[in-house]
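Appendix C reproduces, verbatim, an entry submitted by the partner laboratory led by Prof. M.T., so that reviewers can inspect both the input and the predicted structure.
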Amino acid sequence: MQDHQYSNVYQIGGTTIYVVAPQITDEERKERLEEIKRQIWLIWMNMISKQ
């Protein structure tokens, strides 16, 4: 079994939630952020055009 480095661990009642952050490069992080920005812009423009 692979040993993970947990970013966060949450306890909710009797449940334990382990959050494992993706291991990505700074370049990939920037690309993902730019894609998120692009999608937000497209959604915004779509909302404006429907008004």
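The chain has a mean pLDDT of 92. Additional entries are available on request from the coordinating office.
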